[in-house]
C-alpha cells in the first residue's frame, strides 16, 4: 500500500512537501515568460508552470489557506526540494532541472496514483501532466545533447551543476510512508542513464548528497537565492495585510 | 475565392508580377482581368485564400498589418509578465500566466497566418528586431503597479477587441480565421481585467487608489490605440476598399468610449477626462482632445519603454540562438538518419 499514513499531521507534512515543490518550480518557470529562446517554448514552459501551480493549489489547500501558505510563510518553513528553487540559469540548466525533477515526479505520482492514500486522486490527474513534462525535458535533452558542440557542452555542464541536488529527491517524505524510495531511485537512475546516453551525454559523477544538503529543503534549509525569490513573490501580498485580491 | 483564379485553372502559376510569358498585351489584359475579378470578389465579401491571385500591394499591406499584430502579441507579453512573479494570490498568478501564454499563442497563429503570404517568422522577427516593423505603441508604457495588470485587461484588451472583432470578417481568409479564435480569448482576458479592477476598487482604500491610478494612466494611451484621426491615417482608405479594415479609426474609438464609460461607472472608478459627457443629439459620448504629439513621440521611439521592450526581445532572441541552432542541427541529424535507414531498406529490398 502506498501513501497510507493517514494521520492528519503526516498528511500535512507530505502535502506541504509536494505542494511546495510544485509551487516553487512553477514560480521559477514563470520567470521565463518573455525570455524564452523560441515562441513555442514560451507556450510550453508556461504550460508546465500552470500545471504545477494547479497541483500546488490543490496540495496546499489540503493543509490550509493556499495564499497564507504561499505568501506568509518564512523561508525556513518551506519544505520544497533545493533542486526546484535553483535559479533558471541558461536554457540547458532549466531543462536539466526539469529532467531531474519531472522524471522523479512522474515516477512518484504514478506510484501514488496506484495506491489508496489521500494523494491518490491528485496523483491520478497529475501523472498525466507529469508524463508530458517528462517528455518535454527528455526531448530537449536529446536535442541539446545531440545538437551542436555548444549545446552539448552547455547541457553537460547543467547536468553536472545540478547533480548534487538530486540525492534529496529520494529522502523519504513524512506522510508518504508506503513509497519504496529505493526502488523509485533505481527507476529514476535507469531512466536518466537511458536518456543521457541517447543524447550522447554522460551521467555526472560525484556525490548526490552531502554536508551542503544536511537536512536540506525538506527540513526548511534552502539555498541563498531562495530568500530573494520569496521576497519578490511575497512582497505585494505582504504589503497589504488582510486585503483580498 | 474562385472568382479570381485564372481561367486556365487554379494551379496555373502566375508570376507575382502578373507575367505569363505570352507577351505584353496578353499579360496586361490578364492582369487587368485578374485585378477586376479580385476587386469584384472582395466587394462581394468573398474570402481571399493563400493560392488566389492578389494585388502585390494587398499582399504587402496584409504582411505589414499581420506582422505588426503578431509583434504586438509577443512584445505585449512583457509588461504583464513583469507581474507574474509578484502576483498577490495564487489564483491571480494562474490567470496571469495563462493570459501571457495566450499572447504567445496568438503570436504563433499570426506568424503562421502571415507565412501563408510567402514570408517567414524569422524574416518578420528580424524586421521587428531591426526596427523595420512596428508593434502597438501601447506596450511602450510601463506597468508600475499590480492594478496595471487589470487596466491592461480592461482597457487595452478592450480596445484591441473593438479593433479586432471586425477583422474576423477581413477579406483575407487565414487572418480572419486566426482572429476568430484570438477574439474569443481576448474577450476572456478583458473580463478578467475588469474583475481584477473590481476586486481592487471594492477592496481597501489603498487598493482602490491603486486601481484609479492605473486607469488614469492607461485611459489616454488606450484611446490612441485606434490610431491617428481618420484624416491623418495613412493606410485607411485602401484597407477599407480591400475589406482588410471595416470601420474607420474614429468610429472604432467612439465605439470603445461608449462601451467603457458605463463599465467605469460600475467599477466605481472615474475616467480622467473632464470633457467626457453624453451627447444626446449624437447618441454618443463626447470626449476631450487626444494628445497626438505624445502618440507620435512614442511611435518614434521616445516612449517610456521603447528601448527596454525591444532590448529584451533582442536579448531573448540572441541568447536563445544556440538553442534554436541545436534544435535545427538535431532535426537535420535525425532526418539524415531516417534517410539513410530508408535507403538501406530500399537497398535490401532490391537485393
Automatic annotation (TrEMBL), chain A:
Pfam families: PaaA_PaaC (PF05138). NCBIfam families: PA_CoA_Oxy3. It comes from the Bacteria. This is Phenylacetate-CoA oxygenase subunit PaaI. InterPro entries: Aromatic_CoA_ox/epox (IPR052703), Ferritin-like (IPR012347), Ferritin-like_SF (IPR009078), PaaA_PaaC (IPR007814), PaaC (IPR011882).
Amino acid at each position: 500500500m502506498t501513501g497510507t499514513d493517514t494521520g492528519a499531521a503526516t498528511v500535512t507534512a507530505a502535502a506541504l512537501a509536494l505542494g511546495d515543490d510544485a509551487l516553487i518550480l512553477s514560480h521559477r518557470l514563470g520567470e521565463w515568460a518573455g525570455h524564452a529562446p523560441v515562441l513555442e517554448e514560451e507556450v510550453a514552459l508556461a504550460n508546465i508552470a500552470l500545471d504545477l501551480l494547479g497541483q500546488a493549489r490543490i496540495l496546499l489547500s489540503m493543509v490550509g489557506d493556499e495564499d497564507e501558505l504561499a505568501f506568509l510563510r518564512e523561508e525556513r518553513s518551506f519544505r520544497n526540494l533545493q533542486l526546484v528553487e535553483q535559479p533558471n540559469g541558461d536554457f540547458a540548466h532549466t531543462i536539466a532541472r526539469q529532467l531531474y525533477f519531472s522524471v522523479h515526479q512522474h515516477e512518484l505520482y504514478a506510484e501514488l496514483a496506484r495506491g489508496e492514500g489521500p494523494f491518490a486522486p491528485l496523483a491520478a490527474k497529475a501523472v498525466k501532466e507529469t508524463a508530458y513534462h517528462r517528455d518535454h525535458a527528455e526531448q530537449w535533452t536529446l536535442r541539446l545533447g545531440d545538437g551542436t558542440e555548444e549545446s552539448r557542452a552547455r547541457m553537460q555542464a547543467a547536468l553536472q551543476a545540478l547533480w548534487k541536488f538530486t540525492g534529496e529527491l529520494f529522502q523519504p517524505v513524512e506522510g508518504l510512508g508506503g513509497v519504496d524510495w529505493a526502488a523509485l531511485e533505481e527507476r529514476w537512475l535507469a531512466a536518466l542513464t537511458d536518456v543521457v546516453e541517447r543524447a550522447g551525454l554522460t551521467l555526472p559523477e560525484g556525490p548526490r548528497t552531502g554536508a551542503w544538503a544536511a537536512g536540506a529543503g525538506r527540513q526548511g534549509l534552502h539555498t541563498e537565492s531562495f530568500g530573494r525569490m520569496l521576497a519578490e513573490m511575497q512582497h505585494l501580498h505582504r504589503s497589504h495585510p488582510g486585503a483580498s485580491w | 475565392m474562385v472568382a479570381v483564379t485564372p481561367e486556365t485553372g487554379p494551379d496555373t502559376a502566375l508570376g507575382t508580377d502578373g507575367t505569363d510569358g505570352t507577351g505584353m498585351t496578353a499579360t496586361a489584359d490578364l492582369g487587368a482581368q485578374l485585378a477586376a475579378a479580385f476587386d469584384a470578389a472582395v466587394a462581394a465579401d468573398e474570402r481571399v485564400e493563400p493560392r488566389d491571385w492578389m494585388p502585390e500591394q494587398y499582399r504587402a499591406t496584409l504582411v505589414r498589418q499581420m506582422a505588426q499584430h503578431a509583434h504586438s502579441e509577443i512584445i505585449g507579453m512583457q509588461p504583464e509578465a513583469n507581474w507574474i512573479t509578484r502576483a498577490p494570490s495564487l489564483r491571480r498568478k494562474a490567470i496571469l500566466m495563462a493570459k501571457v501564454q495566450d499572447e504567445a499563442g496568438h503570436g504563433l497563429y499570426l506568424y503562421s497566418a502571415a507565412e501563408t503570404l510567402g514570408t517567414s517568422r524569422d524574416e518578420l522577427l528580424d524586421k521587428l528586431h531591426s526596427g523595420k516593423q512596428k508593434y502597438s505603441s501601447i506596450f511602450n508604457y510601463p506597468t508600475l503597479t499590480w492594478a496595471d495588470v487589470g487596466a491592461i485587461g480592461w482597457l487595452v484588451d478592450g480596445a484591441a477587441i473593438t479593433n479586432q472583432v471586425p477583422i474576423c470578417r477581413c477579406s483575407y481568409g487565414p487572418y480572419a480565421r486566426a482572429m476568430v479564435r484570438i477574439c474569443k480569448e481576448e474577450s476572456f482576458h478583458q473580463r478578467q481585467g475588469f474583475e481584477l479592477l473590481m476586486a481592487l476598487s471594492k477592496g481597501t482604500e489603498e487598493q482602490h487608489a491603486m486601481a484609479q491610478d492605473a486607469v488614469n494612466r492607461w485611459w489616454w494611451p488606450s484611446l490612441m490605440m485606434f490610431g491617428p484621426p481618420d484624416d491623418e491615417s495613412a493606410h485607411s482608405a485602401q484597407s477599407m476598399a480591400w475589406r482588410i479594415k471595416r470601420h474607420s479609426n474614429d468610429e472604432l474609438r467612439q465605439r470603445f468610449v461608449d462601451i467603457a464609460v458605463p463599465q467605469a461607472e460600475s467599477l466605481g472608478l472615474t475616467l480622467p477626462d473632464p470633457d467626457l459627457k453624453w451627447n444626446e443629439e449624437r447618441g454618443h459620448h463626447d470626449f476631450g482632445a487626444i494628445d497626438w504629439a505624445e502618440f507620435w513621440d512614442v511611435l518614434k521611439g521616445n516612449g517610456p519603454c521603447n528601448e527596454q521592450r525591444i532590448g529584451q526581445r533582442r536579448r531573448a532572441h540572441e541568447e536563445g540562438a544556440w538553442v534554436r541552432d541545436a534544435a535545427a542541427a538535431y532535426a537535420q541529424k535525425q532526418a539524415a538518419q531516417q534517410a539513410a535507414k530508408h535507403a538501406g531498406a530500399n537497398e535490401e529490398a532490391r537485393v
